[in-house]
Structures are given as structure tokens and as C-alpha cells.
Design brief:
Elements (H helix, E strand, L loop, with lengths): L6 E3 L3 E2 L6 E8 L4 E9 L19 E8 L3 E7 L5 E4 L11 E7 L4 E6 L6 E7 L2 E7 L7 E12 L2 H15 L20 E3 L1 H4 L5 H13 L6 E4 L4 E4 L4 E7 L7 H13 L3 E7 L12 H6 L3 E3 L5 E3 L3 H17 L5 E5 L3 H5 L6 H20 L3 E3 L5 H4 L7 E3 L11 H16 L4 E3 L10 H11 L4 E2 L29 E2 L14 E8 L2 E8 L5 E6 L12 E5 L4 E5 L5 E6 L3 E8 L3 E6 L9 E7 L2 E6 L4 E6 L5 E4 L2 E2 L3 E4 L8 E6 L8 E6 L4
Parallel strand pairs: 13-14, 13-24, 14-17, 17-20, 20-21, 21-22, 22-23
Antiparallel strand pairs: 1-5, 2-3, 3-4, 4-12, 5-11, 6-7, 6-8, 8-9, 9-12, 10-11, 15-16, 18-19, 25-26, 26-27, 27-32, 28-31, 29-30, 29-32, 33-36, 34-35, 35-41, 36-40, 37-38, 37-41, 39-40
Length: 677
């Protein structure tokens, strides 16, 4: 493929012993989207007595694609067995090993090169001089034949659309178009605020600790809708890392898991309670001769080293998870699961079963069980290896970063980078779980702003006594519903190829909320103060319009048009959040205490000179108007208002703030009336 800017060149034949393998490029020329297939079979020159020519399980087939015309690069690579992260190479030779997505920019256009995990083989990319090394491997010994898709690439003017088009085309060719994120159902339970036990207790979680925490949340009027009991609750041998039974550890939950779950729901109003487990049951599978082995063993395979794990067979895997999940639901009252360590599938089956086959089998069984017993309410975790991402048939939510670790100083920077940039790849498949956070922490504002732009679940993990409602309530409505963006948060255009964590730069992530853009900005270096800016050219889809930029913290509004910029200042370890709203004569901003202010608007109606807004709870509401109101009413009573001129030269308008008083259970009604003249 060669366009006017970036050129990719693939070999027609690949030398691998004898004979050669063919490298075939097919695609939708009109959409500038193409796939690369590898087809062929290795045969020894002397079949009876010559050397065997099986493909190496890890090295497989390798070839180099020539690349030219590239001005900027971004790579998303597998830096740990479980996780992806971004790299910002200056040239192709610096593209890291195990890269899964390379985004390239020419003079004006973009090219997204996507490694694919097909039916059996997975692809990894790596820099090789002026080209990109492509390695296609099976993870299975004795393979001599290949017929699989290995790459898809898409060219266009919009890098986000290129990434999406590449993933869509690949999934279509694999017969899995329903695996696109927008075709998955976001679980309704995760529309509410959550709490997780992990960073509160780690493996010392217990019935009493959980109930003490829920009591605190109730007293502080933090409306948690779901709670997750993380690692440490299981009846397991924690030294050998194997599962012994299906219920909770008796010393931590003396009356069983069901009693704790019942109290969580009845006494503290938790609608959904979930539990954690590893994809293998526990990290090393099941304990021999245990209750877990007796009940779940029919769905297992025994490895040569004796470890007992779910079989790489969809039916058996479903039996393994289904028996356990049915017990958790029917006996213990559990509503969902978080399943960790998913990228261990290919590690446990190394040399024995192909990447695609092993992961597809286990993931199909797991997803089927979660669908049957938990209405598909599952959080996938530690599963960013490509063979896992490409093989989850139905579950909608997956972790998109390494852990938030509250004890690591400055850990937010890496956390923000991973979540934002990984979404360019994983966000094509799943809604991102950007992990739990502490509301009482030196980086609490940054973490709250990060979750606001994520588009995924929002949950905290403060220990007993640690919850600070100030950094939680701005993310939710009064009933605990998360004010959630429509898509998945991603870096703005001007940040795509810049590593803000190196210092001196501002990281900006964006998402959509209805017709509005949400832009989160973070200072990532050691500077005491740093200036950032927002331009319409930073955001796709804003061309040709006039927008209002609202600074949520300063409570100021400004007009912004093409060619202009809105500047802001951030302190050290700081975060800002900005709304871009289409400019009209009257623009409701919403509840000012909320990070995404329009999320506080429940209903809107306009009748000529009368604007009506139904609002959720809050102390103050705001709107932008080109005309000064004659009256402002809250629940039918006239009230005062303050006005502040909007900056910018495009129009004259003011930003108005209105005190709301004490909103009732149904919120309040705001009416803005203008004279007819």
C-alpha cells in the first residue's frame, strides 16, 4: 500500500525453510482499509530424512514491512503479560517489542496499523531499522501450517476513525462484528457508584471490615449502588495460591458469604454485590482433593506440572465457571464477578494450545457463564494480552491499565497515560474500567477528573474512615447514578504523539456528553505552574462551528472559534475540566458543583421567551445567555442571579449563576424568563 504520504510495503513471499509462505493483502480499497493474510505450509526438502520445519511457537513467521513518509509515531505495546501502555518512538526502529497498534502521521493523513490475533495465531510488531518487524506466532509446538489474518491497516484524515475502522474490518473478517464496543450492552448496574475492598483492606478483607465501611458510607450520605469484595475473601491456600472451596474463608466470614451479602443489601442498601476470582479459580488453579476440585474438576484439565485449571474447551470451561457462578448467585446472593489474571491463559497453555484457540475457549465459557448467571455483569481484569481482547464474545467492561496504587508517589501520571492511550486500542472492543481510586489522597482531584472523562465505571476503595465525599459527589447524581460520558476517553489530537509525562506538557483527554465535549487536562511534570490551551483543531468534529468553553473550576465561560485558543493554568499535580458546548443564544450549563455540569440537567424545555430546566440536587446552577433575563424563578419563586461577561470577541453574552436553595427529593425547577421586546 502506498498513498501520497505514508507508504507500507509487504513482501509477496516469505522465506521459511521450503517452500515459501504467501503474504496476501486484501481489503476495501474505497475505504482505504486493508488486511494482510499469511497462508502456507512448511515442508522439509527431504520429507523422510530431512530436518523438521515446524514453526517456532514464539518466533513463528517473521517479515519486515517497509515504511516511509512517517512524521510522527505512537505505539501501544504489551509491556507486561497483563497490560498495555503507550510508547512515543521518534523513529520506527524504536517501536517496542510486542506492539499491538502503531498510529502514524504523515504530512496530513494518518495510518493505523493493527496487529490481529486471529483464529490461531497472534501478531506482534517491533521496530526494525526503517521498517516494522511483523512476527506471527501460535504459542503451540508442532505447527507447520498457517492460514490466518495477521494485520489490518486503515488510512484517513481522522486518527480515531482509522483505529475504529481497522478494528471493525478485522472483526468482520474474523466473523465477530458484534465484538465492537458500541455493539456491546453496557451493564445497567455499573451506571451507579461503586466501592471495592481491594485498596481498603487488600487480602485482609473481612465481613466486619466491609460492614464497618458501608456504615461509614451511609453516614456520610455517599449513595453506593454496588460493592465488590476483592481478593482475600476466598477459601484458598494463600501460600500455594490454589482454591479450596466455593464459599468464603471461614475465619474472615464466620457465618458464610451469604450472611455478609444479605446484610450489605438489607442494612446498607447495596443493590449489587460482586466477588473477585482469578480466571484459573485462584492464581495457581484448584487444590487437589479439595471441595473445589470435587465440584469443578469436570471442567478442568491437569497440566503436566499437576496444576488444575479450566480446560481449553468452551463446554468444559462453561461447566467450570457455571457451577461456581450458580452457587455464588443462588446460595450467596452474588450479582456479578470481577475475573482477574486473564492473560495467564496463554501462559498456562504455552506450547500446548494455540493463542486463539485457548483464549477463545476459556473466554467463551467464562462469558457464557457470566451471561447466564449474572446477566453479563462482569469486570474483566489483567487481560490486555491481545489473545484475550480479541476473544471475549459478549462482556462489555475491561480494565485498561495497571493498578492504581495509592502508596506510589506520582503514580497518577502513568495511570492516566495508560488509561487514555490504551483506549485507542482497547476502546474499540470494550468500555474501559479505569480502576478504583482513593477520595482521600494527594491525587484525589486528578483521579476524580480522570474518572469523569473515562466513560466507564466509577468506584472508590477508601479504607474505613477515609472517604471524602467532596471528591465523589461531583461525579454522580443524588441517587448515585454516575454522570457518564458517551464514549471512551482518549487523548486529544495535539497530545496523540506527545509524552506529557516527560514534563513541560499538559495531558488532555476528551470524551462526549451528548452534544458537548468534555476535556480533562492534567499537569504531568514537576512544574509549579504550567499553561495549557484548547483549540478546536484538538478535537475531531468541531470544524466550522462556534463553541462555548466552560471552565468548571473557575466557573467562567468563553467563546471559541476556529483559529483561536482558550488558555488555562494548572498548578503542580493539578487537573482541570472543561466543557465545550455549541454556542447558542441560550446555553444551559447545569449544576455547577458537578464535574460534568450538564449531567445535573434532568429535563429541558424552551418556550420562546421562557426556558425551563428540571435540575438534580445542587447549590447553584448556571447558564449562558446572549440576552439578560428579566426574571429567574426556582420552584416558582423569584430569585437573584449573578452575571459574568463571557470572554472572546465573537459575541456578547454573559454567564449567569443562580442559587438553588434546598432541592427536594425531585430536584428543582429553574425558569428563566426574558422580555418579548
Amino acid at each position: 500500500m502506498c498513498r501520497e504520504e505514508i507508504c507500507l510495503n509487504f513482501p509477496g513471499y516469505i522465506k521459511k525453510e521450503a517452500p515459501s509462505l504467501t503474504c496476501k493483502v486484501t481489503g476495501k480499497e474505497q475505504e482505504e482499509t486493508k488486511a494482510v493474510w499469511l497462508r502456507g505450509k512448511t515442508v522439509p526438502a527431504q520429507p523422510l530424512f530431512g530436518p523438521q520445519t515446524h514453526l517456532d511457537p514464539h518466533k513463528g513467521v517473521s517479515f519486515t514491512a517497509g515504511v516511509s513518509g512517517v512524521k510522527k509515531l505512537l505505539a501501544i505495546y504489551q509491556h507486561k503479560d497483563w497490560w498495555l501502555r503507550p510508547a512515543f518512538p521518534a523513529r520506527t526502529a524504536q517501536i517496542p517489542a510486542r506492539t499491538q497498534l502503531v498510529l502514524m502521521k504523515g504530512r496530513e493523513r494518518y495510518l493505523a496499523l493493527l496487529a490481529v490475533c486471529g483464529r490461531e495465531y497472534r501478531t506482534d510488531l517491533e521496530g526494525a531499522g526503517d521498517g516494522i518487524r511483523v512476527t506471527v506466532s501460535s504459542n503451540c509446538a508442532g505447527k507447520s501450517e498457517i492460514n490466518d489474518i495477521c494485520l489490518v491497516y486503515a488510512v484517513g484524515d481522522d486518527p480515531y476513525e482509522c483505529c475504529h475502522r481497522a478494528a471493525e474490518y478485522a472483526l468482520t473478517l474474523l466473523g465477530r462484528p458484534s465484538m465492537l464496543r458500541e455493539r456491546r450492552r453496557y451493564p445497567a448496574m455499573f451506571e451507579k457508584l461503586g466501592w471495592c475492598s481491594w485498596d481498603a483492606f487488600y487480602q485482609k478483607v473481612s465481613r466486619q471490615g466491609i460492614l464497618d465501611k458501608l456504615k461509614e458510607l451511609k453516614e456520610k450520605k455517599v449513595p453506593v449502588g454496588w460493592a465488590l469484595i476483592d481478593d482475600g475473601w476466598l477459601d484458598a491456600d494463600y501460600e500455594a495460591q490454589v482454591l479450596k472451596g466455593l464459599d468464603a474463608a471461614a475465619d474472615k466470614f464466620p457465618e458464610g458469604l451469604s450472611e455478609c451479602v444479605r446484610r450489605m443489601k438489607e442494612e446498607y442498601g447495596i443493590s449489587h454485590v460482586g466477588v473477585w476470582h482469578a480466571v484459573m479459580g485462584y492464581w495457581n488453579g484448584l487444590e487437589p482433593e479439595s471441595e473445589a476440585w470435587r465440584l469443578l474438576g469436570g471442567g478442568c484439565c491437569v497440566l503436566p506440572d499437576g496444576r488444575r485449571i479450566p480446560a481449553a474447551d468452551a463446554g468444559k470451561a462453561f461447566r467450570f465457571y457455571g457451577i461456581w457462578h450458580r452457587y455464588l448467585r443462588d446460595t450467596c446472593g452474588i450479582d456479578f464477578v470481577k475475573v482477574d489474571g486473564q492473560s495467564a491463559i496463554s501462559l498456562f497453555y504455552e506450547g500446548r494450545v494455540e493463542y486463539g484457540k485457548a483464549s477463545a475457549a476459556v473466554q467463551t465459557g467464562l462469558n457464557a457463564s457470566a451471561s447466564v448467571y449474572f446477566d453479563n455483569n462482569i469486570i474483566n481484569c489483567m487481560g490486555m494480552a491481545p489473545e484475550d481482547m480479541w476473544n471475549r464474545p459478549s462482556s462489555a467492561i475491561a480494565r485498561s491499565s495497571d493498578d492504581f496504587v495509592p502508596q506510589v508517589p506520582g503514580g497518577f501520571r502513568e495511570h492516566a497515560l495508560q488509561n487514555g492511550y490504551n483506549s485507542l486500542l482497547q476502546g474499540q472492543f470494550f468500555w474501559g474500567d479505569w480502576d478504583m481510586f482513593w477520595s482521600s489522597h494527594s491525587e484525589n482531584r486528578q483521579n476524580a477528573v480522570l474518572r469523569a472523562v473515562s466513560g466507564g465505571p466509577v468506584y472508590t476503595s477508601d479504607p474505613v474512615g477515609g472517604t471524602d465525599p467532596e471528591y465523589i459527589l461531583p461525579l454522580i447524581r443524588r441517587d448515585g447514578t454516575v454522570i457518564r460520558c458517551d464514549g471512551v476517553g482518549m487523548p486529544t489530537l495535539d497530545c496523540l504523539f506527545e509524552n506529557a509525562a516527560l514534563g513541560g506538557k499538559v495531558l488532555k483527554l476528551f470524551n462526549r456528553y451528548g452534544e458537548n465535549y468534555v476535556v480533562a487536562a492534567f499537569s504531568m511534570g514537576e512544574e509549579k505552574s504550567i499553561r495549557g490551551s484548547i483549540r478546536l483543531s484538538d478535537l475531531p468534529g468541531t470544524e466550522g462551528g462556534t463553541w462555548i468553553v466552560y471552565d468548571q473550576r473557575k466557573e467562567e465561560a468563553a467563546f471559541l472559534a476556529e483559529g483561536e485558543e482558550f488558555s488555562f493554568d494548572l498548578g503542580e499535580n493539578d487537573a482541570g475540566l472543561f466543557l465545550l458546548m455549541p454556542a447558542e443564544d441560550f446555553v444551559p450549563v447545569g449544576i455547577l458543583e458537578k464535574l460534568i455540569c450538564p449531567g445535573g440537567i434532568l429535563f429541558r424545555r424552551e418556550l420562546r421567551a421562557r426556558k425551563i430546566l428540571s435540575l438534580d440536587d445542587g447549590k447553584r446552577a448556571g447558564f449562558v445567555s446572549a440576552k439578560r433575563p428579566t426574571w429567574v424563578l426556582v420552584d416558582g419563586r423569584e430569585t437573584t442571579f449573578e452575571e459574568k461577561p463571557c470572554t472572546g470577541t465573537l459575541r456578547e453574552a454573559c454567564f449567569y449563576t443562580v442559587p438553588m436553595g434546598d432541592a427536594g427529593m425531585d430536584g428543582c425547577m429553574l425558569e428563566v424568563l426574558f422580555s418579548e421586546g
